[in-house]
Amino acid sequence: MSLLRQRRADDEINQTATHETLPQHQKDAEIANDEKKHPRVLGLFRVQSTGESGRTGFDPLHFFHICFRSTCTLSMIVNVLWPFVPAAIAMGFARKDLNIWVFALNYIAIIPTANLLGFAGGELARKLPRVFGVLLETSLTSAVEIILFMVLVKTGTGEELINVIQAAILGSILANLLLCLGLCFFFGGMRRDEQILHEAVSEVGSGLLLVAGFGLLIPSAFHATLTSAVTDGTITSEELQDTTNRVSRATAIILLCAYFMFLWYNLRTHNSIFDEVLENEENKDEDGETEHFRPKLTLFESILAIVVSLTLVSLSAYFLVEQIPSIVERGVPDNFMGLILVPLVEKAAEHLTAIDEAWDNQINFALFHCLGPSIQTALLNAPLVVLVGWGLGKEMNLNFEIFMVVLLVLSILVVGNFLRDGKSNYMEGGLCVLVYVIIAVTTWYYP
User: Where is the composition biased (Polar residues) (predicted)?
Assistant: First the structure.
């Protein structure tokens, strides 16, 4: 009996000695694997303490260093634009008469601030359960869009700004579906023959987008159909406008119900499916080891970065929107402003993140970051704009021009057809981008 105990004691000593003689990186890998299987729990947060994410409090040097390096090379390059931020805000306060300069500087300034917001949202998402974290990250990146929409609704007084808001709603969806998803398919397909899409993400996303597209189409079709009744004298144009506003507000409330159903589906009833999909994507990350040991923000630093970036984005968005009428007067079509220019800048940081994920073979993560914001724009942001406009007494509705609605529905059908086979390649991505370029050229010449 004593001999058996002695052997066990010798084995434990040998295991300890072997572990102590392992190289430092192997020890870190063992610790990382153990923490990945058994993450530390702190209240409601799932804290991964690998690398430097186990830090607490606020360290200014680490904070600025981590934020500047961001998550990928593309995001780090975007951070070079940070000198434009103070210049843009100062110009917005001091020289509002320099319309082009104020617009151009704040247009550029939104890109690095939105990039910081997306990065901080991703850092905070790491400390939460996977599905909830991804949805929170998507909501934070869409905060730039919500801020722009709300500023447009609050300051908009003429029909031109209403057109810009309506075009920006549809342009945001088109930018995610055609441009961002197309670039993800293209760059992801450059390194491999094809990438496999999970049906839980692609089918649910494309189905919701199709429903949202038809929901946005109905008020426009209603108004266009009854326009002939105004000509015949059956109803007056004021009555038609009032009825269209009521239909738009009812549709907005129904779309909000669809959005909350989408959240319940993701977070409660089918969260295990999405959690499994996202976990598999983390395992497929070709840059996973580097990302795992990358220095990370603490909980307080993540929240601080979100607050700072939201404040700066709000200021730049306000100054940008103020100058839109002046820019439109100089010959830039209002539809081009809303459909192309505004969505490009508000979605730039989010697009970089999705492209980097596709490049690292995390195509379902990228798909989630393309379809998720599109669904949120159609089911949450657009209805919110209508309801807030209603509360402010503005003539804000979902009566889009038929030209733009046709573009939206056709784009949803094209993307849905590419997602149907569950695979993606660079040719499909290139075709999506080319369709977006055609839309941009046509919108420039659309009166």
Answer: 14-24
User: Hey, which residues does 40 pair with through a beta bridge?
Assistant: 47
* Nearest Cα to Cα of residue 351 among 174, 154, 162: 174
195 DSSP β-pair partners: 424
Task: Note the pLDDT of residue 186.
Answer: 92
- Domain range for 233 is 57-445
In a domain, 1, yes or no: no
Reading phi first (left if > 0) and then psi (alpha if -120 to 50, else beta), residue 339 is in alpha
> pTM of this prediction?
0.78
Q: What is the DSSP letter of 79?
A: G
For residue 83, being part of any structural domain is answered with yes
Give the lowest-confidence range in 279-288, 328-337, 376-385.
279-288
Which domain CATH number covers 65? 1.20.1420.30
Answer yes or no: is 44 within a domain. no
SS3 call for 45: strand
Phi, psi of 47 (to 5 degrees): -95, 120
* Cα(297)–Cα(48) distance, integer angstroms: 11
Q: Which long-range contacts (CB under 8 A, 24 or more apart) does 45-50 make?
A: 45/127, 45/128, 45/299, 46/127, 46/128, 46/129, 47/127, 47/299, 48/126, 48/127, 48/296, 50/292, 50/293
Summarize pLDDT for 177-222 with one digit per residue, the tens: 899 999 999 998 888 888 888 777 777 777 778 888 888 888 888 8
Reported as a single tens digit per residue, the pLDDT across 371-392 is 888 888 888 889 999 998 888 8
Q: Is the dihedral of CA 66, 67, 73, 79 positive or negative?
A: negative
